[in-house]
Design a protein that fits this description.
The protein has 534 residues and is mainly β. 10% of the residues lie in helices and 51% in strands. The protein has a domain of 134 residues: Immunoglobulins (Immunoglobulin-like), CATH 2.60.40.
Length: 534
């Protein structure tokens, strides 16, 4: 009996030694993985130019688009007093010089888009004595002359349209909210022809038996494959545990629901919103808005979500403030290289430090931040809308002290493309040097530096510069056995860094003879001690 106990105990010692060795490898790898998650944040593009359109009124730019002549169109609001707002439209050339300016009656524009005939479509709302909301589409020519306008009325004076986009058949798709009782509303989707006449409309209600939800559509986008993606909010109506979540709906070309998903939390006063949705290059979706936390219900912060084509969450991006703030992204636009540009506003609510600001954030395709700009922190500039431009820059619209502003960022210096997976030996002996190679290209054909992560907590220096497309070669040796993951990243001469490459696993085992002898000697000692080898 004692022999069996001691043999069992000896086996435990050997096994635990082997496990501890493996555990050390895993912990080492985990620590290395943490070090690999370095910040991609680099310098933002420079300001190419900025224009202020002075006015004797109180003006502010709310939406913008690049035009077919490489100029820009701005839709904004002109306030004569606290109770009267006019729709303001400004057309500029490619350098931001004003070509014409027009107003189109009372209202506040939601968005503006150039149409296929080089004219423009505007979605607007008008508040009538705080008792009625009037939603209108305005079609104007390339010279700013009104072609037609349409008012859309539901069954309630509080039905409203939030956004409009031209569709592939040259009609329009509109999204908003339609009242369904005193406190209940539904998401409202309207499809029109090219003259703004309604072809069909759909409502979407998230209410259940004995539970009422108030729903609003905030953004819509036509899919490349046909159909639409809708982003909205759904609010549970209750006395003690009301909450608001994001509601995504995917439809066919006739507005029939295909898929849906909600995102958020159900604690009392949870607040999640989706102010913008766009299709990604992979066929999924990018959603931006705001959300709060249970620990700070009265604060919201910047939030973005990326989903696959089936509306399943892939990744989120959040900026959590350290002090009390109201924050949220307005718009997310896909960029030409597959990333996203986001713009939003925030304000501090911690007296006496009460201020407003604009945050501009560039994310890569995996929602890692590449750069950001904060406006309004040291000045009075506030911006509301952004669009990528054909030269890979960005155009931003907003205002300053009652004047509309337009700001152009230079062409973005894109980072090098993701380097190729390192090539070289996938196994070896500790203490021996092994050679590894990789390469990549730079979109602007800039020279490239490379850095290798060796999987043991160490890194190479930045190697280079090399011409774009040139293969880099370097070597490394490992002092201990283990499985190591080698990765490489690149940066250009402007300090813009790429993603890390896919990893190459390299196995460095302890020399077999020494390891086998060590294990055999332990077992032999136990076997001889208890006479099992006799």
């Amino acid at each position: 009996m004692k022999k069996k106990i001691f043999i069992f105990f000896g086996a435990i010692i050997v096994t635990s030694l082997m496990i501890s060795s493996v555990s050390a490898i895993n912990i080492n790898q985990i620590n290395n993985d943490k070090k690999i998650i370095e910040s991609l944040i680099g310098p933002p593009p420079n300001i190419e130019w900025e224009k202020t359109y002075t006015s004797t009124h109180n003006d502010y730019g709310l939406s913008t688009d690049q035009t077919s002549d490489n100029g820009y169109i701005i839709a904004g609001v002109r306030s004569e007093n606290t109770e009267y707002n006019e729709i303001l439209v400004i057309k500029t050339d490619q350098n931001g010089n004003k070509q014409w300016e027009k107003t189109f009656g009372e209202g506040i524009p939601n968005n503006i888009q150039q149409t296929s005939d080089n004219g423009y479509i505007i979605s607007s709302i008008k508040y009538i004595e705080a008792q009625e909301i009037q939603s209108k589409l305005i079609k104007i020519s390339s010279n700013g002359n009104q072609v037609w306008s349409k008012t859309y009325l539901g069954d309630s004076e509080f039905d409203c349209i939030k956004e409009v986009w031209q569709t592939s058949d040259e009609g329009y798709i509109l999204i908003g909210a339609k009242m369904n009782g005193l406190i209940d509303s539904d998401i409202w989707l309207i499809k029109t022809n090219s003259q703004g006449n309604i072809q069909w409309e759909k409502t979407y209600d998230n209410s259940e038996l004995l539970t009422t939800y108030s729903d609003s559509g905030l953004s819509v986008w036509e899919l490349n494959s046909g159909g639409y993606i809708i982003a909205g909010i759904t609010t549970k109506i209750a006395l003690i545990d009301s909450y608001t979540n994001v509601w995504l709906i995917k439809t066919d070309a006739n507005g029939n629901k295909l898929k849906e998903n909600t995102f958020g939390e159900t604690f009392s006063m949870a607040m999640w919103s989706a102010n913008s949705v766009r299709e990604t290059q992979e066929g999924g979706f990018i959603v931006t808005g705001a959300r709060n936390r249970q620990s700070s219900k009265y604060n919201t912060y910047f939030w973005a979500l990326k989903t696959d084509s089936n509306l399943n969450k892939k990744k989120t991006f959040e900026i959590i403030p350290g002090i009390e703030k109201y924050e949220g992204f307005n718009i997310a636009c896909p960029t030409y290289e597959g990333g996203f540009i986001l713009i939003g506003q925030g304000s501090t609510i911690d007296p006496p430090d009460i201020s407003s600001y604009t945050k501009l954030v560039k994310l890569n395709t995996n929602l890692y931040e590449e750069w950001h700009i904060d406006f309004g922190v040291n000045d009075d500039n506030m911006y509301n809308a952004i669009k990528p431009t054909t030269d890979h820059g960005f155009i931003i619209a907003g205002g300053n002290n009652g004047n509309t502003k337009l700001l152009k960022l230079e062409k973005e210096n894109l980072p090098p493309n993701k380097p190729n997976k390192p090539s070289g030996s996938a196994s070896g002996t500790p203490g021996t040097s092994y050679e590894y190679t990789s390469s990549t290209t730079d979109p602007e054909n800039n020279q490239i530096y490379y850095k290798f992560s060796w999987g043991d907590g160490s890194y190479s220096e930045w190697l280079g510069p090399y011409n774009s497309g040139t293969t880099v070669k370097t070597s490394h040796n490992w002092d201990a056995k283990g499985t190591y993951k080698i990765q490489v990243k690149a940066k250009d001469t402007g300090e813009h860094e790429s993603e890390w490459s896919d990893s190459l696993s390299v196995n460095m085992p302890r020399p077999k003879a020494a390891t086998n002898t060590w294990i055999k000697n332990i077992f032999k000692t136990f076997m001889n001690k208890f006479g099992l080898l006799q």
